[in-house]
Amino acid sequence: MKIVMCASEAVPFAKTGGLADVAGALPLALEKLKEEVIVIMPKYKSVSHSGATIGKDVKVYFIENNKYFNRPGLYGEKTGDYPDNLERFSYFSKSALELLKKIDYKADIIHCHDWQSGLVPVYLKTLYKDKPFYKKMKTALTIHNIGYQGVFGKEEFPKLGLDWSLFNMEALEYYGKINFLKGGIAFSDIINTVSPTYSQAIMTREQGFGMDGLLRKRRESVFGILNGLDYDLWDPAKDKFLAKKYSADSLKDKLANKAALQKECGLPAEEEIPLFGFVGRLAEQKGIDILEKVLRRIYQLGIQVVILGTGDQEYHVLLEEAAVKYPRQIRLYLKFDDALAHRIYSGCDVFLMPSRYEPCGLGQLISFKYGTAVVASKTGGLADTVVDFDPIGQQGNGFVFENYSREGLLEAMLRAALAFHDKKIWDALIARCAGLDFSWQESAKRYIELYKKAIKG
Ligand code: ADP
User: Fold this and answer.
1) Strands 36-42, 2-6: parallel, antiparallel or unpaired by DSSP?
2) pTM of the predicted protein model
3) pLDDT tens, 284-296?
């Protein structure tokens, strides 16, 4: 099968979130299964390679356009989204299709991701419909987060080069505006999200962000495949950022990383204090509102917390207040720092994912590999992967709360801290975490099945 991965970001070239991890890792797993894959992405300013590869052999093609992509950010900067994102990503989508012709790559399937490449299926089924070269190509669209849809004013429609007849409720129009993701959902042969539970969630009013009606209509074509984790990037046994490398068989050495992290964070280096970590976007989706409220009472908990993230200014301020108030318990880093993220996953005892909603979530999968238990809300991919600790049956890999609330989170954190203090129980718990396998191979097999479905029609 000839597969094209069409993505606005991919590890190791450009990353703002989980989408980049998927677009970088899935091609490698597909290649291992003997499929032919290429990747197409924009050439941002930060991308220094050209004509590069992912792994040894997966070719990456960069769409170059200095006016659109030679900028510091991918989609925007501190001041907000770039005002010409409609032009930038419609250009990207169309150029990706043009490129296929240029390199004579007759794809069986073009796998698009999120709104940024949501126009690929639209163009393919309209402007390119009658071109023989493209005739047999099918599309799959993965929705990594339905909260981001690429919405633009109607007045920009002529820039898309599409017929005005497409500006209707069945296609690109959503409440008088242009919606890229909606176009992708309407025109793609197959739609999927990054976990089974989330694929159901987006068909509900509560979590569909307005797309639920259209998705329900296309129910037969909507699927959920859990993301895998790239164990070449995330493995404590070969992680160059750690104070001490370790594996599932030498989890005792994780303690050296805890001590190093406490030291780095300026927190009392005490083994007996449970250390909680958070790495992620500081956005409402990630549950920062309830986390911040719990942190205000951290003095009652006897725990330490290290937080790494960037995002909404209001959360920067609130978290900073808490960190200033409790310098011996909270350390806050308001930045993006991959190396530090690795040290947090390995150094903490418990990783926090109190998300309001979570399509898949990589943090919990990374944590497991590093022998770190997880506190999580029961939603989306977290519901599919984090199993609540059962002290009697000695099962589970984390601490789950069902009702999204400060009380729910607090209760789960307290249960985690309690379990931590029983050394025997804790060692067994983190051994179970480290023994889990969420590698890409299984997910890649499911994607191949999905591509075949799209091709069959
Ligand atoms: P999302 O894609 O919704 O942001 P995921 O959990 O799916 O969330 O993926 C987030 C990825 O980005 C993880 O690999 C996480 O470690 C990484 N990440 C997020 N914020 C930061 C940060 N401030 N510094 C380093 N890595 C980060």
Assistant:
1) parallel
2) 0.90
3) 999 999 999 999 9
